[in-house]
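User:
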Amino acid sequence: MEWRILAITLYLASTLAYGQDECLVPDAIKPECHLWVDPQVGEPVFFEHQFNCSRFWVCNPDLSDCLHECARANTPEGTLFFDISIKYPYGPVCNFPELVDCENKENMCKQCKPEEQCILCDDCPDCPEPCLDGGIKCVCNEGQTCINNNSRPCGVCTNHFCVEPECCTDEDCEGTKCIDGKCGECEADKDCTEMACSTCEAGVCNNPECCVDDDCANNEYCTNEQTCKIGCNEDSDCMDGNHLPCSECQDNSCTNPECCTDDDCASNEYCTDAHECVIGCNENSDCMDGNHLPCSVCESNSCTNPECCVDDDCNSDQYCDNNTCVDGCNEDSDCNADMSCAECGADHQCTTPECCATSDCTTNHLPCTECQADNTCTDPECCENQDCPSNMPICDNHVCVAGCIDNPDCPMYDGICGDEYTEEDASCFYCDKDDDDKYGDCEPGCIDDENCATGLVCNGQHRCVKPGSLTALQSIQIDTASCSGCSGSNVEGGAVLFLKGKDGANNYRPNCTTDGLDHTNQIDYTAGGSAIFDVENDSSLLGGCYLVNLLAEVKSGSITWTGQGKITIEKVTFCWSDSLAICSVCQVAGPVAQDQTLPMTCSTL
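Assistant: Predicted structure:
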């Protein structure tokens, strides 16, 4: 409780003391605030009054001074004392006298500065300060910062003497710096800039005569002691135009070699590694003197004499191999004596192909053999049909294939047909080949009536049938309405008919195609004309429709005009071998031009 009251009292005392609106009239020497306040820090500094313990000085951050007084209190002295031990920012503070180390003095002590201590002359006879009025001396406060000769206080009071360093700031030195309390030129080597190698020694710049050779005259070098001396220090000092480029600095003198390169020697000499000219070569380039081949090399200081460097150095039937001429070809033309397209291989040997032209492929080859791009002869299986075996009788693109060109090419082409027409069981075959095909296939069936048994005939579908046994196509009558641009001659080309018969059992619907219907001995197609083609006289013209069983009816079909011009068909009538069967009549919608195909619509009469 007592200390809490004391703390409150101290706070009030501080407020009363430092918070005064006006400063007291100075009654002693004022402090020199510019010496004690650091404007960059901006903190106030406090001083005890010279003789009154209840008063104190304040040096403000703006370097102004102010005299304050502590508040009065119920003490024997009647006031509080300034407590110098409490610094800013907690001070200034006024405290109870018994807690402050201070004694009031006579006002004659006003002759002292605030930072000094006022003592009797007899108390310090050895102090150098003079005695002032009243028998006092103004000495520094023991152990406190003090100032005597410097611009700022940085000394320490010892035995009432202000012990100061030579300097406190650069201001205390004339043209030099304050370094660790002493005036000097530098603090570190970087402060010395007169020479690149200048150093700072004991605060003084050491500036040598030289740092590098360039700091000396042309005929001098910079020694390790950094002084200039006549001579060289390194090889580059010998690059002065008075010595060869390979001159070296030895013992601070430039050597004088006889040579640096071969060019410094005579044409028949070389420059040794010891920089002396001797007869012979030192490197391959020394052999490029016109007396040796370009690939001559320097070995044991002598130039070699190779037989060759390139193929051209050898005879025409030789090539250069490891600087020696050996027999062999050098280029393709060297091999032409063998064949015109023979080549010289990577091993310098001629490679002879099988052929260069087709004429080279005549021996042991078929006549159609050719010379290929890779200079090899083709090996065809055949050139024509006669080159092929009987089971593969057709030569197609030089390959033997199965097939036929004509009926005799088929097995049993002259056989008598039986009842079976399958590949396995048939006893007669014909060549099924269209005119536009290169070859056809051998199919079961008759060629003509000679393949049929007695009493049977070969119909248009190559089947042997008995005449009258089936309702076969008997005749075709074509009535022409007009024929524009037709040939008007016996050979007209004629019409080709495709016919579809009536549907039979098991979805069987027969069909057939005629050949060109044209009697070459008469004009068949003329306006209002009529032409009849029947089985007795025109079996070859009826083609695939000869004696074909269409089940006594033509249901539909088409017509293709193969002649010149454009024909208009009035109608086409189909009659049957059975006289009781009703003839079919077909109409063609519009005229038919050459090679044009139009459909036919059919009905029965």
